Each structure stands twice: as C-alpha cells, then as structure tokens.
Amino acid sequence: MKEALLDTHALIWFLEDDRRLSPLARELIEPLANRMFVSSASIWEMAIKVASGRLDFTDDPISASEREGVETLAITAEHAWANRSLPVRRDHKDPFDRMIAAQALCEEIPVISADSSFDGYGVQRIW
Q: Which of 2.10.70.10, 3.40.50.170, 3.40.50.1010, 2.60.120.200 is the CATH number of 3-126?
C-alpha cells in the first residue's frame, strides 16, 4: 500500500478526469488499496479560487474526494510550525504549496504534483 498527498491541481484533474493528470499519478490515485490524502489547504485554495471566479468547480470537493476514497488531511499545529524549516524562496511564495510541503514532510509521504517547485522544499514528488 502506498500513501501520498495530492496537490490541489492533481485532485482537480483526478476528479474531473482531466487528461493532464499523468498516467503514473492516475495509477497511484485510483486503486483503493492506496491511501490518498488532500490537504485542508487545497480545499481552502479551491474555495478562494471558486469565489473569485478563477476556478469553475461546481461539486463539493470534500464530498467528491470522499466518494473517490481520498481522505482529507487536516492542518495541525505541527504542520503549521514545520513551515519554519522550509526554505524561503523568492521564486515561489505560494502559501498553499508551502503548507502541502510541510504536511508531506511531517507525515513522511510524497506529493503527487506536476509542480516542480515542490522539489525545492525537499519533498518527494511523484508525477
């Protein structure tokens, strides 16, 4: 059994059956034998983007994730505090990605993401 944390776009692409999701990512996410997580930060990011009109996602991402067997990973105080040890990068300041990276490091699980900026945080990234 494998575990991984989905980046926001990976979750969206999986839920929408988008062809931009890599074959390897799909292969890991789909089997119920694998344990997949989505960060509360991703749900928050989606809510902001839907509210601002930058994301057209009509389904409830929490329910949609649960239907697909993807569990929500709550943000703990330890996850928040772990951000202190992440490098401060001028080329990448996305607070949602920083939280996802911190969670992945704390939980010792890889991130499924096309975003190579995770590589700069020392996170194992699968794509």
A: 3.40.50.1010
Contact 40, 6 (CB under 8 A): no
Contact criterion met (CB below 8 Å) for 68 and 15? yes
* Predicted structure pTM score: 0.94
Question: Can you give the residue ranges of every domain in the chain?
Answer: 3-126
Distance from C-alpha of 60 to C-alpha of 30, rounded to nearest angstrom? 19
End-to-end CA gap in the chain: 18
Residue-wise pLDDT for 15-51, tens only, equals 999 999 999 999 999 987 899 999 999 999 999 999 9
What are the residues facing 46 on neighbouring strands?
Answer: none
Which residue bears the tokens 């330890």?
Answer: 78
CA distance 111 to 96: 13
Q: Give pLDDT tens digits for 70-123.
A: 999 999 999 999 999 999 878 777 999 999 999 999 999 999 999 999 999 999
